Amino acid sequence: MKTVGTGLKYLGLIVVLVLAAVPIYWLLSTSVTSPEKIFQFQWFPDGLNWQNYIDGWKSAPFGAMYKNSIIVTLAGALIQICVAILSSYAFAFLDFPGKRIVFLIFLGAMMVPGTVVLMPNFLTIAALGWVNTYAGIVIPGVGSVFAMFLLRQHMLTLSSEVTDAAKVDGANHLRILWHVVLPMSRPMVVTVIVVALVEKWNDFVWPLVSTSTDSMRTLPVGLLMIKDAQGFTNWGAVMASSVFIVVPVLIVFFIAQRQIIAGLTAGATKG
């Protein structure tokens, strides 16, 4: 019976692997398929048409878009993580009036769809003169209730004896956070960092709304430009352009996958 259960688990893992791998393989294979064979079902393309990558790169200013995406992603994720760490520490270790009410308000904000605040955010950056600027793209998204909540829940599982010992030694809150809490929370912090990086890198709607010039477009918005430029005749170039966007995310995941798994399973393995 145990063998059957183990076999079913492996079967489930194989199914999940196939569901996750097939779209990526289809993307890669289509990106090197000739335009006239795009709609012909085949697992392995007849020959590698690298011209799709050249056509895709020439269809939009990819150099500027890569620069914009890197700046927006790194700046946005850095500020978001700093805000999340500080706020999660406050909710986990500090006592202040209305703490529970404020926390519930933050949780309620998670239920609000992003489209609801789209127009108020745009009117705000327009009034500040931040349209078509990095500040206009980055600043409205620096607050992440999800990141704060995830870190706060993890910090609550840490031993209070360690933080109490640091207080006895005369450490202030910033020192406790930097030298005690963060080292103990490294897997979860890495997980939140990766989630923030992927979120910022893949963000489409807000960069589209807050920019109107090609020089400030990010990669996801540029993909729409490429699709419009290529029309429905060269999907190979569109898929090749998608590879340019997907590869950096995959690299980040493979580098940090152990820390991500450790962070996601930290609460489950807590004794």
Write structural notes for this entry:
The structure is a single chain. The protein has 271 residues and is mainly alpha-helical. 71% of the residues lie in helices and 0% in strands. It is built from 13 helices and no strands. α10 packs antiparallel against α13 (235-264). It is globular and about 70 Å long.
Question: Topology, pairings included?
Answer:
Blueprint: H1 2-31, H2 51-58, H3 62-93, H4 99-109, H5 118-127, H6 134-138, H7 145-155, H8 160-168, H9 173-184, H10 186-202, H11 205-210, H12 219-230, H13 235-264
What are the defining features of this structure?
cell membrane, Glycerol-3-phosphate ABC transporter permease, MetI-like_sf, 271 residues, transmembrane helix, globular, MetI-like
Brief summary of the model shown:
It is a multi-pass membrane protein. With 271 residues, the chain is mainly alpha-helical.
Shape: globular
Number of domains: 1
CATH class: Mainly Alpha
Structural class: mainly alpha
Could you tell me the mean pLDDT?
Answer: 85
